[in-house]
Amino acid sequence: MSATPKPVYLDHNATTPVLPEVVDAMLPWLREHFGNPSSNHAYGYRTRDAVAAARSQVAELIGCQPPEVFFTSGGTEANNLAIRGVAAANRERNHIVTSVIEHPATEMPCALLEKQGYEITRLGVDEVGMTSLSELGPVLCVNTALVTVMHANSETGTLQPIENIAAAAHELGAMVHTDAAQTTGKIAFTVNELGVDLLSIVGHKMYAPKGIGALYVRSGTTVAPQLLGGGHEQGLRSGTENVPYIVALGMACEIAQRDADTANERIMQLRDALWRALSEAIPGLLLNGHPTLRLPNTLNIRFPGVSGNSILANAPEIAASTGSACHAEDESASAVIRAMGLAESEALGSVRLTLGRGTTGADVDIAVKSLLQAHRIESRS
Ligand SMILES: *Cc1c(COP(=O)(O)O)cnc(C)c1O
Fold first, then answer.
1. Is 237 helix (H, G, I), strand (E, B) or coil?
2. Are residues 244 and 304 in the same domain?
3. 228, 256, 284 — which closes off a domain?
4. Which of 76, 155, 182, 204 to mutate to test the pocket of ligand 1 (most atoms within 8 A of CB)?
5. CB under 8 Å to 164, separation ≥6 — which residues?
6. pTM, whole model, 2 decimals?
7. Which is the closest atom of ligand 1 to the Cα of 205?
8. Could you tell me if residue 34 is inside a domain?
9. Span from the CA of 33 to the centroid of ligand 1 (angstroms)
10. Within a domain: residue 65?
11. I need a labelling partner for 273 at 20 to 30 A (CA). Which of 129, 215, 220, 280 fits?
12. Is 141 part of the annotated catalytic residue set?
């Protein structure tokens, strides 16, 4: 008997594996070069240079200047710093606009500010999961400190109209933050094209390790630090730099810059092949999210009359999820899918399949077979 093969990994929006090239880049900074980047001797210079090089790699990918990149412990910290930091530095304004489809790392800081007296407006989304620009216009005012809307939603993959949001917000002098955890390395963009003042990057969604991220802060934007200490990262984020992980994030950005277009084109073709095979075989199968303005790796589908959890339970050959990893233990339907106007019973049929650099044509064949088999079992029961 052979060992059970590992299931095909189709959950890249929850986390990605670390690329071998990224591991290779970070290892010397664990094994040999241990100096504190703040030290004024050869050991310190060495790691300081490595951090500077990584900062340039991140800046290059998103089209900003290196001093506008601040390393953090990940996406949660980057979002908290952006939202709480902008709020604290602009106390004369007490209104924040966000959306109903944000990651908890955005929603929770907004909810805390709401408890503390801020007015929070949460924009709704349309039937393909796009935030409503028509709702934004009337709520923006001279008291709006910040508009924070994610660049793409991790469940549906739907891209959000950040350029339009930023233009509208700036007319009233509000700052604009976007959580680009899901788009960095998946679609090409620059901070100037988006028009944002702050942007969050997450290492473990783009083939670097968990526990590293970055916040882009446009030069001239006032943000109050949320971690106080030795004044690292220009005083905005104290704490001795995590050199190996910073090097890893830099390398992941360099790789994305080098070949993301080709990689993502290939991934998108596989994803579309997966959708074609499933939708031809399963009558009434529906797509959640925007048909084209969507992450190239994301396929969120809805099985009519069948629960997504049961489908996945009967498809052990694949590892996927019904919604975001943050709510996986919860049996109720995804709030993101519900926000698109679907009933609980409809939303419960959703399954999210997210492909990545390691996904092959053979993986897609396995996934199709497995899901069709699961659907046959479930529609009989
Ligand atoms: C993963 C993710 C985060 C959180 O990043 P961590 O590094 O896990 O804290 C925030 N926002 C989005 C959209 C994400 O996908």
1. coil
2. no
3. 256
4. 76
5. 133
6. 0.96
7. 1
8. yes
9. 29
10. yes
11. 129
12. no
